[in-house]
Design goal:
This protein is mainly alpha-helical and 636 residues long. Among the domains are: 253 residues, no CATH class; 40 residues; 51 residues. Helix content is 70%, strand content 3%. The protein has 23 helices and four strands. It has a two-stranded antiparallel ribbon with strand order 1-2. The protein has a two-stranded antiparallel sheet with strand order 3-4. Strand 3 and strand 4 form a beta hairpin. The radius of gyration is 32 Å and the shape is elongated. The N terminus is likely disordered. This is Formate hydrogenlyase subunit 3/multisubunit Na+/H+ antiporter, MnhD subunit.
Length: 636
């Protein structure tokens, strides 16, 4: 055990440069290890003390700032160490550990450990380390990985916040760092990044408005000051604002629009953090659930899977499945029971593993074949066997096949819906499960199983060997794949971390096992039935086909209308000014024609001096002017 202590101490050193925030982690470490290890082994575990100077998010952000100035090996190595360190700190920090500060004059908590933040920190750190390794092996630049680490750091800051002010601060930084990660790739990613930024700017603004309203009602930003956000308008604003991040139906189009565009390694990071941080935010805002949110989650699960099935672009298909799978989590948060909450966070954990793995495998295909469209792929099992194996494990995991991690967490959420007699949600989620099997049978069939088409990306280069995946890519993929299987076969290892209650979670009952197999069979039959019809489909429009041009023309109309209004006002002012100067320079000529009309005389007869008034007329005019001035003064 001395070796383990040395390893943990070395990783902790990254987090202990300065500061005085000290916590004993003995209790938490013992609780978790007693749950995960045999009783005989637990007593031998050491007592570990460490000093944590600042929140783990700051450690990641520090490495992000210096990474561009280091070599690729050192920059990525430090990134992997610090993200792995976050996972370890999250695992062993005691429940209740927190770092209170004063932020902008308000009480805030920069680092708060509870069951919600612990499970998020463990998985965010774990997958962050794997993604950094994958990035290094995928020839990602230090600058891109620095943006990615900034994205990871701000996400970690959000989930470890102990108050709404800190959460929204990191939330907005997360939108900025993720946009920068998208933009870094250039090309089509730039315009997609602008649309991404607009969506998240609107969502963040709504969340800020909800939090300010909540503060006015409660008098504090701290999570402990109230149970969730203030009901009514604040809760509604927060639901829509967070709904952008999680991909509510109608607010989801930034997902398939953005994630297929950047570098393959950037997509691995992007698929993890934004949507799952949104799920965490929903759990904080609605700790007791909300039935409307539960039904929205079910709708997300079904709409996302239908659109995913109709896609041919690999990463676009996977992006729609983010919406679908996050729908399960949102449904669990909305149902609000202890089992549903535990299931939602179990699915967050599991989904991050298999979704990152799916994007890794797709990235290997794109980098080695140069093609994203499934129509032009095939036969890759013989060129990329380990990638094919990793894909198979991830596909079975996301589909919820028995023995893989998605089967456990999906079953917890559907069981929670069933126990609460929410039959509509229950059957919608089952239907989405069938669609998920169909989607990944399609992906696997076209990319790996069928023979390569003669005119496809592989058929045109049949004599050219496809370079296998890099060593680091294989390590990252197979490492994550092993976790998908481990948490599928030994779910108690995950249950020890979850909020809520897993007392009613029984993943290996005969009924649940039969349900998983039946969904798989229905998925095979379903794909066989729709294979030919969907193979002839082109790109299927989503609501962005209306939203994007509509927003463009409305914005252009507003800009042009405002510009024309200002131009008209400017012309009028210039005309009045020019006329005033003319009158001032030659007042007699200016009044000749109006005076001739008033006096009913020929203008040519009105020569200079012919308009002189008598003394009586002059006195009358002065009196009239004085009366008008007096009346005006009195009215004021």
């Amino acid at each position: 055990m001395s070796g383990l202590s040395a390893l943990i101490s070395a990783i902790m050193y990254v987090f202990t440069l300065t500061g005085t925030f000290s916590r004993s982690i003995t209790t938490a470490f013992s609780d978790i290890t007693y749950a995960l290890l045999p009783a005989a082994a637990a007593p031998s575990l050491p007592t570990i003390e460490f000093v944590l100077p600042f929140p783990p998010a700051f450690a990641i952000l520090s490495i992000a700032l210096i990474a561009p100035f280091l070599s690729r090996r050192v920059g990525h190595g430090l990134g992997a160490i610090v993200t792995a360190g976050v996972a370890i700190i999250s695992l062993i920090s005691p429940t209740g550990a927190h770092l209170p500060v004063t932020f902008l004059g308000f009480d805030a908590v920069l680092f708060n450990v509870d069951a919600f933040s612990r499970v998020m920190g463990v998985i965010f750190g774990t997958i962050g380390a794997a993604a950094v390794l994958y990035s290094y092996s995928s020839q990602a630049s230090n600058r891109q990985t620095a943006f990615a680490l900034g994205y990871v750091g701000t996400s970690v800051g959000s989930v470890f916040a102990g108050d709404w002010l800190t959460l929204v601060f990191f939330w907005e930084l997360m939108a900025i760092t993720s946009t920068a990660l998208v933009w870094d790739y250039g090309g089509e990613a730039v315009r997609a990044g602008f649309r991404y930024a607009i969506y998240h700017g609107i969502g963040g603004s709504l969340l800020i408005a909800a939090i300010i309203w909540h503060y006015v009602d409660v008098g504090s930003f701290l999570f402990t000051a109230a149970t969730g956000l203030t009901p009514g308008v604040p809760a509604a604003l927060a639901a829509v604002g967070i709904g952008v991040n999680v991909g509510f139906v109608g607010l989801h189009v930034w997902l398939p629009d953005t994630y297929p565009r950047p570098h393959i390694a950037a997509s691995v990071f992007l698929c993890v953090y934004t949507t799952k941080t949104g799920v965490y935010g929903l759990a904080r805002a609605f700790p007791d659930g909300n039935i409307l949110i539960a039904y929205m989650g079910a709708a997300m699960a079904l709409v996302g899977v239908v659109y995913a099935l109709l896609q041919n672009d690999m990463r676009r298909l996977l992006s729609y499945h983010i919406q679908s799978q996050v729908g399960y989590m949102v449904a669990g948060i909305g149902i609000g029971t202890a089992l549903a909450t535990a299931g939602a966070f179990a699915h967050v954990f599991n989904h991050i593993l298999y979704k990152a793995l799916l994007f890794m495998t797709a990235g290997v295909v794109v980098s080695r074949v140069g093609e994203e469209n499934l129509k032009y792929l095939g036969g890759l099992r013989q060129y990329l066997p380990l990638t094919g194996l990793a894909f198979a494990i991830a596909a079975l995991s996301i589909s919820g096949f028995p023995g893989f991690n998605g089967f456990v967490s999906k079953g917890m959420i559907t069981a929670a819906a069933d126990k609460k007699n929410l039959d509509g949600i229950f059957y919608i989620l089952l239907a989405a499960g069938v669609g998920t099997f169909m989607s990944f049978i399609k992906f696997g069939y076209y990319a790996f199983i069928r023979s390569a088409p003669d005119s496809g990306a592989i058929g045109d280069n049949a004599d050219t060997d496809i370079i296998p995946s890099a060593t680091g890519q294989r390590i990252a993929m197979l490492g994550v794949a092993v976790l998908c299987v481990v948490f599928g076969l030994f779910p108690d290892a995950l249950f020890a971390l979850l909020p809520g209650s897993t007392a009613d979670a029984h993943p290996f009952t005969l009924g649940h096992l039969a349900e998983g197999v039946i969904l798989a069979v229905l998925g095979i039959i379903g794909f066989a039935l729709v294979k030919r019809p969907i193979s002839n489909l082109g790109r299927i429009p989503d609501v962005d086909a209306v939203i994007n041009p509509g927003s463009f023309y409305i914005t252009r109309g507003l800009v042009r209308g405002t510009t024309e209004l200002f131009a008209t006002v400017d012309t009028m002012i210039q005309t009045i000014a020019a006329r005033s100067l003319t009158i001032t320079a030659d007042p007699y000529s200016a009044v000749r024609r109006p005076a001739a009309i008033l006096l009913q005389r020929d203008p040519d007869t009105l020569t200079d001096g012919s308009l002189q008034a008598t003394i009586g007329t002059s006195v009358l005019l002065v009196v009239v002017v004085l009366v008008i001035a007096f009346v005006g003064t009195m009215s004021m």
